């Protein structure tokens, strides 16, 4: 399906993944409208007025806002704000809009670790406060989505997938480990993403459910971050 024909989203947290220029931002913008709040990519963020107070007043005219939690003085000049402070301001306005759908386009991109941790904690509190909310977040960093996303939506060439449950997708990407033998021969005929070796030990990431025994191999499955990385580059 194309970004203009989007799937229905039940409440929950969705990671939006895919290669660069695949259409993730276009898809988020296609969902933006009444009932949705958007945190755009940093380069696309719009600020109005001279001060934080001016910007908040402008935002409140467009949409009545709940109480805003902001660690920035309202008298601060917009042109004096750091990248992280600008992101916090955009984030705070979107959360205060209290819409049923929250759209996030690379919200943690370019932020230092402390700001990233603070905004992530604020997002977790926002989700916990109302389980009926839907959050869709695009990120090229799997670690930003891990622990938050229960599903991913894949975008490849402007084609948008239905939501993919991580727990269901995990079994399609087994990880095999062995301590001897030739992995090239042992894994022949399987869809292998990568193989790493250290002496006789080897480890292989597959992109298909395991349908046969591999002698001497143990089977494991990727954690959420590794799985999301795989789903960002391969259709489920």
Automatic annotation (TrEMBL):
Stored CDD domains: ABC_ATPase
Name listed for the protein in its UniProt record: ABC-2 type transport system ATP-binding protein
Gene3D superfamilies: P-loop containing nucleotide triphosphate hydrolases (3.40.50.300)
Start and end residues of each ABC transporter domain: 52-108
GO molecular function, one term: ATP hydrolysis activity
Classification via Pfam families: ABC_tran (PF00005)
Cross-referenced InterPro entries: ABC_transporter-like_ATP-bd (IPR003439), P-loop_NTPase (IPR027417)
Organism: Corynebacterium timonense
Source species, domain of life: Bacteria
Keyword ATP-binding recorded: yes
Keywords (A to Z) from UniProt: ATP-binding, Nucleotide-binding
């Amino acid at each position: 399906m194309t970004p203009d024909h989007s799937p229905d989203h039940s409440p929950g947290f969705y990671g939006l993944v895919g290669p660069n220029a695949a259409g993730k931002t276009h898809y988020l913008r296609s969902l933006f409208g009444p009932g949705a709040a958007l945190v755009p990519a940093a380069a696309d963020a719009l600020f109005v007025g001279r001060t934080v107070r001016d910007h908040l007043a402008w935002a409140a005219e467009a949409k009545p806002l709940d109480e805003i939690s902001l660690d920035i003085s309202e008298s601060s000049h917009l042109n004096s704000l750091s990248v992280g402070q600008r992101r916090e301001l955009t984030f705070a306005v979107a959360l205060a809009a209290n819409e049923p759908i929250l759209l996030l386009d690379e919200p943690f991109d370019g932020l230092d670790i402390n700001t990233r941790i603070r905004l992530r904690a604020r997002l977790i509190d926002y989700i916990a406060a109302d389980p009926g909310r839907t959050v869709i977040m695009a990120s090229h960093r799997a670690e930003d989505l891990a622990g938050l996303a229960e599903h991913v939506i894949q975008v490849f060439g402007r084609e948008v997938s239905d939501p993919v449950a991580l727990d269901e997708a995990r079994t399609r990407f087994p990880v095999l480990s062995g301590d001897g033998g030739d992995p090239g021969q042992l894994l022949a005929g399987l869809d292998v993403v990568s193989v790493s070796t250290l002496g006789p030990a080897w480890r292989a990431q597959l992109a298909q459910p395991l349908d046969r025994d591999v002698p001497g191999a143990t089977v494991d499955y990727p954690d959420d971050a590794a799985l999301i990385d795989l789903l960002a580059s391969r259709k489920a």
